[in-house]
Design a protein that fits this description.
Length: 179
């Protein structure tokens, strides 16, 4: 089985992300009352999971494109992720947000990409993309990128939830009850 290969890739990739970068992202998140997330495909799924966790720790979080998502306002925060940095809708959404005075967090594997030119990546994940293979991963397409997104997001939530006593109990109260 290749499970150990995946775990080794995750270990190597996680070591390339400086803890200070994660702290900067946490600081940015805490500075905003409303957090929006956007991505497509599997990256989008990881962002949706992150939005759920943000809500569970008591923050106002929204997924761009959902029917109940309000319009952004100046001073809101948008978090986007694209391994290639070339996903058209992600680039357009990021550009639109900047024009509307929305702060931006970018997570990508491609700092020289279109997205990277709109806003330099706050977190750069070493991984393959759907357009390019990588020496750091044997996994297909953007698998390592998406796995790392989940780890990065869960690390942020763990750090933020540890700051307050009783946080797990509070999160449990906000967990979906109609399931």
């Amino acid at each position: 089985m290749r499970m150990n290969t995946i775990i080794e890739e995750l270990d190597r990739s996680s070591k390339t992300i400086a803890p200070e970068k994660l702290q900067e992202v946490i600081k940015k998140i805490k500075e905003h009352k409303r957090i929006f997330v956007y991505g497509t495909g599997r990256s989008g799924l990881m962002l949706k999971a992150f939005a759920m966790r943000l809500m569970q720790i008591g923050l106002s979080s929204y997924v761009v494109g959902e029917t109940t998502t309000p319009s952004v306002q100046e001073g809101d925060l948008l978090i986007v992720a694209s391994a290639s940095g070339e996903t058209g809708s992600v680039c357009m959404t990021a550009e639109s947000a900047v024009k509307q005075g929305v702060d931006l967090i970018v997570i990508s594997s491609a700092p020289e990409s279109t997205l990277g030119k709109i806003h330099a990546p706050d977190i750069e994940i070493e991984a393959a993309t759907k357009f390019a293979t990588s020496k750091v991963s044997v996994q297909p397409l953007g698998s390592l990128f998406e796995q790392m997104l989940l780890i990065v997001f869960d690390t942020i939530i763990l750090e933020m939830s540890q700051e307050e006593e009783g946080s797990n109990e509070d999160m449990a109260k906000r967990h979906a009850s109609l399931e």
